[in-house]
Write a structure and sequence with these properties.
The chain is α+β, with helices and mostly antiparallel strands. The chain has five helices and five strands, in the order H-E-H-E-H-E-H-E-E-H. The longest helix has 24 residues.
Amino acid sequence: MLLRLIVIGALLVIVALGYWWWSDRDGRVKRVEVPGALTPDVLGAPRGQWATFVQFSTPMCAKCPGTRALLLQVAQEQQHVAHVEIDASERLELARELGIMRTPTVLVLDSDGVVVARMDGAPTLAQVREALAAVPPPQDWTI
């Protein structure tokens, strides 16, 4: 009986540590270099003049609607920032090409369509703003 309790306790600790590790990764901003640019034709929508959030979602994703709302809020606050949502289940080839393994995944593009940051999982407002800060202004930018 004591051995069973020890095994159950050990399993609970392992599961708790696994959950903590997994949730700690959610939304973390990673600087990435993806060769080439994502054109409006590839995205199926126009890009922002300064930056674009490209959100990969699926119909069964529980965190995708909240991520969409957050990204739309930030895009509306920031001039020249766009939000594009792509259904990964309908665009499997693109998702595979970009290494999308979970949803939501958000790619942050600069004005040329080059991926400058990536967030796997549901990001926080601070993480979204951190990713946006990684986008350099366009070279021909005038204020």
